[in-house]
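Possible regression after last week's pipeline update?

I re-ran a chain I had predicted before the update to compare outputs. Posting the input and the new output here so someone can diff against the archived version. Not blocking, just want to make sure nothing changed silently.
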Amino acid sequence: MYLVSLYFDSQTEKTLRKHMEKVAVKTGNAYMAEHRIPPHLTVAACENCPEEELISALEECSAAWRAGAVDWVAIGCFKPHVLFLEPVLNRYLHDLCVSVNTALDRFEGAKRKSRCQPFGWMPHAAVARKLTEKQMLTGFHVLQTNFSPFSGKGVKIGLARSSPYQNLKTWDLQE
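New output (post-update):
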């Protein structure tokens, strides 16, 4: 599986990591750290795409991508195993999702994740994964106690392989 993700300015990354670390300490679940998964927001996902062609397709549209505001406003979960922080789905995030998914349209036979496509996508940054029910409740309490809405900026787009997570290419975003 290939993931196309948004990465953040240093202060936003630091804030997201702080929440990841607090949840990991309190739950005993360090999956994110153990698998070296950085704070990110996946905007598209696909399988069965030739890697070099995928990089080329993303390279072609990367000039249109820009840095943009991301306002983090809520905590949430995907049952049964994931805790996350959620930003507002603003025009910037929507347009980025549309742009990346349009670049992936050229790959016939590629399996695409509907939950990572426009109007099926709920932007989020995982704070913890592979949680048990008890860890989920503990982690939710940690986030409820420590989270306050904050604003940040998306500054890079990256292409990565999942399982294990491996970054393949990143593009810096201009203002």
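Follow-up from reviewer: compared with the archived run. The chain has a mean pLDDT of 94. Marking as no regression found.
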